[in-house]
Amino acid sequence: MPAFDLPPPELEHYRPPLDEPAGFDAFWRDTLKEAEQAEPLVSVRAVETGLRLTRTWDVTFRGFAGDPVRAWFSRPADTPEPLPAVVEFAGYGRGRGLPHERLTWVNAGYAHLLMDNRGQGDQYGSGGATPDPHAHAPGGPGPAVRGLLAPHDHHYRRLITDAVRAVTAVRALPGVDPARTVAVGNSQGGGLALAVAGLVPDLAAALVTAPLLCGIRRALDLTDQGPYGEIAAYLSVHRGAETAAYHTLAHLEGVSFARRAQAPAHFGVGLRDTVCPPSGAYAAFNRYAELTGTAPRKVLHAYPFNGHEGGDAVHVRRQLDWLADVLGVSRGPA
Fold this sequence. Notes:
Blueprint lengths: L7 H4 L12 H12 L5 E7 L6 E9 L5 E9 L6 E7 L14 H4 L3 E5 L39 H17 L4 E11 L1 H12 L5 E5 L6 H7 L3 H12 L4 H9 L3 H6 L5 E6 L7 H9 L11 E6 L8 H16 L7
Helix pairs in contact: 4-5
């Protein structure tokens, strides 16, 4: 697929106006206030993984409405000192899988919490373990359209709240330095990491790659792939529901979260990405922290000939180097 979005010189300065609802901040303040009533941790159980150099726990924490959310918590074996924590969010349709699947951050010396996606996990990967008991509002079968007609009903209101609560949960776990907590994700996970950056003011860093939910209205005009295609398909059947749907999606817009962020940020984007069009990532990057009166360190790596995979392993290495520098941690032996 050739490049299909704006030319790179335009992307580098792309700052689109926002149709941001007046009640955006109150909506999220009230949502999180309700979730914060419960203690974060429900259970922490050590599990055997067959890995000698990594220790792993099956964690259950309380997310939206106090619902139990599952996660894998791992850290390098024989490292008793408090470690910076990376909270990772998985992609669309994926669950937390098996505990030995994602070891990069643990091998780099971090504590690592991988959050399960409620009501997802059946499209690819190795499954999930967190149901969504609230998925009963009008909308289609996919997460992107569950509860599409009202902000309070939408799946992502619950999932974003879970993501914020995951940060609270990891900070309550032993062996974690709560002042050095980082949000990481690709695609849907990138959108969640960006939302966390906008909702958790003392986050240490955010690593956001090919983020979903950024520039939503433009993405719906550009692509029928992935989650945006599910929204378009729903609206093709429910003609006249556009106004309600756009109102809901405006409460989930990643660029609005980016404007409220303060943490240092590392972005990645493939310029041929037809799943999450690059203009959304650039809009979030260019307007990042503009409402906070801060100027956090930020960088964006663009991959002109890549699609949704972006820079893949090359980009991960850049993430590792950047985060080690931001947090002041050792990069290991040369």
